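BUG: 3D viewer hangs when loading the predicted structure for this chain

Environment: internal workstation, default settings.
Expected: structure renders.
Actual: progress bar stalls at 90%.

Input used:
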Amino acid sequence: MTTYRLGSSSMVYTPGIIAWAINGYAFKDDQPQLLQTLCNTWSGIPEEAFKQLLAKEVPYTIEDETVVFSAEVDQ
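Structure tokens produced before the viewer hung:
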């Protein structure tokens, strides 16, 4: 498993964005756009890791304004 840290900035509050994306991911038609948005925002994170996060297959924690999660991704 690899641990990923998604940091916030003055323009983006990551915990809020991730909560919004997880809620939206419940709607199948919205899934591709949500994945693309997250992959473009945090370009170093594999799409498969985001899929696991958004599908609630892996838990996440919030440390200050950073979202931390671990996912199993084939390299």
